[in-house]
Each structure stands twice: as structure tokens, then as C-alpha cells.
What does this fold into?
Amino acid sequence: MSIAQNIVQLKASLPANVTLVAVSKFHPAEALLEAYNAGQRVFGESRAQELAAKQKVLPGDIEWHFIGPLQSNKVKDIAPFIHTIHSIDSLKLLREVNKQAVKNDRIIRVLLEIHVAREESKHGLTPDECRELLQTLELASFSNIRICGLMGMATNTDDTDLIEQEFHILHELFTELKATYFKGDDHFAVLSMGMSHDYLLAIRQGSNMIRVGTSIFGEREY
Ligand SMILES: *Cc1c(COP(=O)(O)O)cnc(C)c1O
It folds into this structure.
């Protein structure tokens, strides 16, 4: 099937409250344009340089999401246009995002990345580190950041029970924070979880934003 067909079919299959982030990393601008022409407007990338290069040549109404590990010194490259950063896992990074958002006179939406998978290599805060971060008084001074929710990845495994357990933990943390730290804050509403192989499980566990690459664009060539 073509990229356009994949987009149309995937979108038609999703519940209305679930946002599809088309993960286009390592795919050329033409592939994104095909998805764009099929109606897709939300794209996710994981490398700052690659994202900045694509943003320059693609339509201006694309909503760009950054989903990969982000180094502080790269924030300035995406700050002028980035819509949401999914991969916030330190106060230092938040500080830099706010600084660059102020410089560009914009509000940048961020998600806190939570580590729930078994793999060592995955980035993110543990639930306790997340709670601790939210207690930091300095957060209140970040004028140009909006914390909109959580992002997480499950272990890369065929064990669907384990995947569902991990997504469940994320959903529980999301619900807890929404009732406590973010009580009354309508912006805190995004639970970003689920990729090509596990997005159906993620939706079942309460995801409302999925990040799908391979099922739309095919295998990546690194
Ligand atoms: C690459 C990536 C995805 C998409 O993965 P697919 O398996 O291709 O759907 C989703 N989320 C993150 C954080 C990624 O790095």
C-alpha cells in the first residue's frame, strides 16, 4: 500500500480522541509530502538537524513534534517552530526550552517522558523522579512552557501482557498527576504512548496520542 493509503486507513481506524503523530524520521521530504497530501498535518521527528531541514522545505501549517532524545544545545534549532516536545526528562532541558521559547516569543508545549520499559537504554524519568521534578519551585517561573502531558515507550517485546502493564502504569501516573499537580489545568491532557507494533494496546490503556512510523512510511534505512 502507498503512504497515502496507509494514512487514510490508519486514521479511519482510530477513535476520534486519538491524535496520530506520523513519525517520519529518516524518510525524505517527499514521503512526508505524500502523507501531507493525504491529509496528515502532525509529524514527529527525532533529530534536530533533520527536522530543521525538513521544516524549511515543507508546508507551513505542519504541526511538528520532537520525539527523540534532545540535547540542550540543539533546542535553539527547533525552538522557532516546534509545536510539542515529547522527550523532556530533566529540569535542565526544561530550563533551556523555556529560555529559547522566550527568545522566540512563543509558547512551547512539552510532555514529560516517563521511563517504564525494562530496557536500560530508554530515556525518561521514573514516576518518582517525575513527581520530584514537579515539586521544583523553579517550574512556576517558566513563562513560555506549557506542560501538556506524559510520553512513554513500552518494552520492545512480544509479551503483550507486559506491554499493557507498562502502559497501564503510565496511565495511572497521568491520572494521578491530573488529579493532583495539574488539578484544574485543562492543558494537561495528552498521554502519548503507542508505536507501530503496540498502538492498539496503548489505546486500550488510555493513550490519546500515538506515534506511528513504520506502519505508514515502511522500514527506515539508517
Ligand atoms: C521511531 C519512534 C517511533 C515510531 O516507531 P515505529 O515503530 O516506526 O512506529 C515512536 N516513538 C518514538 C519515541 C520513536 O523514536
